[in-house]
Write a structure and sequence with these properties.
Organism: Virgibacillus dokdonensis
Protein name: GapA-binding peptide SR1P
Pfam families: SR1P (PF13790)
Number of strands: 3
Strand order of the largest sheet: 2-1-3
Number of helices: 1
Oligomer: single chain
Helix content: 10-25%
Distance between the termini: 30 Å
InterPro entries: SR1P (IPR025236)
Strand content: 35-45%
């Protein structure tokens, strides 16, 4: 299971199927609009 987490607000943006547990960091649309 892979997880994409917002690096600004720490909310989970998306979860996806993955062989190993992975955490990626991105920016959610809400935080992107506020910048």
């Amino acid at each position: 299971m892979g997880t994409i987490v917002c690096q600004d607000c720490q909310n989970i943006i998306e979860q996806y199927e993955e062989e190993k547990v992975t955490t990626l960091y991105g920016t959610c649309p809400t935080c992107r609009e506020n910048k």
